[in-house]
Amino acid sequence: MGSEGAFQDPMPTPTLIDSHCHIVFRTFDEDLDAVAERWRNAGVASLLHACVEPAEIPAIRALADRFPELRYSVGVHPLDTEHWADDTQAVLREAACADDRVVAIGELGLDLFRDKNLSEQLAILRPQLDLAVELNLPVIVHCRDAAEPMLEELRARRAQGCCPAGVMHCWGGTPEEMHQFLELGFFISFSGTVTFPKAVPTHDCARQVPRDRFLVETDCPFLAPVPRRGKRNEPAFVAAVATRVAELREQSVEQVAMDSTANARALFKLP
Fold first, then answer.
1. Backbone angles phi and psi of 43, in degrees to 5
2. For every one of its 271 residues, what pLDDT tens digit does the chain have, with 9 covering 90 and above?
3. Distance between CA atoms of 204 and 192, rounded to whole angstroms?
4. How many domains does the chain have?
5. pTM score
6. Is 149 inside a domain boundary?
7. By the 8 A CB rule, do 166 and 147 touch?
């Protein structure tokens, strides 16, 4: 009767991992349960919540209690140097060792776009990199207009045998820069910026990155993908990132979801 198709199950939603989000921010206070329902409906099986300074850690830990699919990092953002104190490395160590849901150190890094205090940023970057090596955890790297000093730091550490694994989150560099970080063993993570029409270098990177070295993320509540650009971002929208990466790589969304999910699980040792 031609009606068999009407009773077939729809195609399953590809499993995705939002490898970088900030749902602890107040912008999610009013509707976080609805946000969670949307990410689950979008196929987001796991989230990695980044930390920008130690005062966030208790609230992020509470979110991990509330949402069993959430894992998190501990660290200090390069634009939050004022939150670094003499005991901060010890605070981060204690937090990481106290909860096996801590799967990374960060987000750490260098940002010379918004601030030029390179020496201060390096002063808080280095003890966090040391801690990651000590605890055998990967790092989540924020690097904006700072590829050269970041590469210099990581190469020096590799020469000494103390360079951690990690991911260059919210990638916005050139293909040449990307290949240098890949040579150091780092993963490349694409955010909503890959959907922006003028982000040509990022598009080229998405085409060129090896299938076993890329992740997808939202960096929510920031950088919502097209067509929601300028609005609040949320974990469900990682599906739009994966869709654009698939278009650029001339692959199916299912393939990109499979590869990025496998890569995130491998890097962060996710279940």
1. 90, 10
2. 344 444 344 456 789 999 999 999 999 999 999 999 999 999 999 999 999 999 999 999 999 999 999 999 999 999 999 999 999 999 999 999 999 999 999 999 999 998 899 999 999 999 999 999 999 999 999 999 999 999 999 999 999 999 999 999 999 999 999 999 999 999 999 999 999 999 999 999 999 999 999 999 999 999 999 999 999 999 999 999 999 999 999 999 999 999 999 999 999 998 7
3. 15
4. 1
5. 0.94
6. yes
7. no
Query: For the chain, first and last CA: distance in Å?
Result: 44
Closest listed residue to residue 169, CA positions, set 223, 237, 216, 101: 216
CA distance 253 to 259: 10
Q: Name the strand (E) or helix (H) holding 20.
A: strand 16-21
Q: What is the CATH number of the domain that holds 110?
A: 3.20.20.140
| Residue 5 within a domain | no
In a domain, 2, yes or no: no
Main-chain dihedrals φ then ψ at residue 189, nearest 5 degrees: -115, 130
User: Are 178 and 209 contacting, i.e. CB atoms less than 8 angstroms apart?
Assistant: yes
Q: Encoding tokens for residue 100? A: 């096996």
Tally of CB atoms within 10 A around 3: 6
